[in-house]
Write a structure and sequence with these properties.
- The protein is of the alpha/beta class and 177 residues long.
- It has a single domain, classed as Mur-like, catalytic domain (UDP-N-acetylmuramoyl-L-alanine:D-glutamate ligase, 3-Layer(aba) Sandwich).
- Strands 2-3-1-4-5 form a 5-stranded parallel sheet, with helices on both faces.
- Helix 1 packs across helix 3 and helix 1 runs parallel beside helix 4.
- The longest helix has 23 residues.
- It is globular and about 45 Å long.
- 32% of the residues are buried.
Length: 177
Amino acid sequence: MKNFFGNIILEYLKFWAKQKLEKIHPKIIGITGSVGKTSVIHGLHTVISPSHKTKTTLKGNSESGIPLEILGIRLKNYSLASWMHAIIRAPFCANIRETYDILIVEMGVDAPYAPKNMAHLLSIVKPDIGVFLNVAPVHTEQFQGGVGEIAKEKGLLITTLPLTGVGIVNSDDLEIQ
C-alpha cells in the first residue's frame, strides 16, 4: 500500500515539474556517474552562470528530489506532514514565474527498476546535453549484473539524447562503452 501511494505522489510531482519546465523551456544538462556528479554540477554552474541564468538540482538527484528541486520545494523532513505540504504546494510552485536558460540536473540511479532507474528520471527531464562521468561498484546490490549493468543503466542518459543532443562521455573509464 505504501508503494502504491508513494508512486502516486511521485507521478503527481513529476506532472507539476514537467508543467513548470514546459513554461520555462530551458536547455537541460543531465549529469550521471557513480562519483563526482555534484562537483561537476558546481563547476558547470560556476562556468556557465556568468553568461546564462542557470538553475541546478543540488539537493536532489532522485525520483523525488529532481521534481522537488524543479518546483523549488524543500522538505523539512520525510514525515507525512512534510509530504502533504509538498503535495499542496506543487501546483502553486509550478505556476510561479521563474526564468532560467539552463537547468543542470544531477541524475542518480539506485536500481535497474522504476522509479529508481534512469528511464524514470528521463521521464521527468529530457536532457539536451548528457554527461556520463564514470562507473564504480556503487549500489551493486540492486544490480545483479554488477558494474556492467550499472554502466548500461546510466548510459541511457547518452543513448536516449535527441538527434540534436550532445553526449559527453568519459572514455578513460573502461566500463563505459
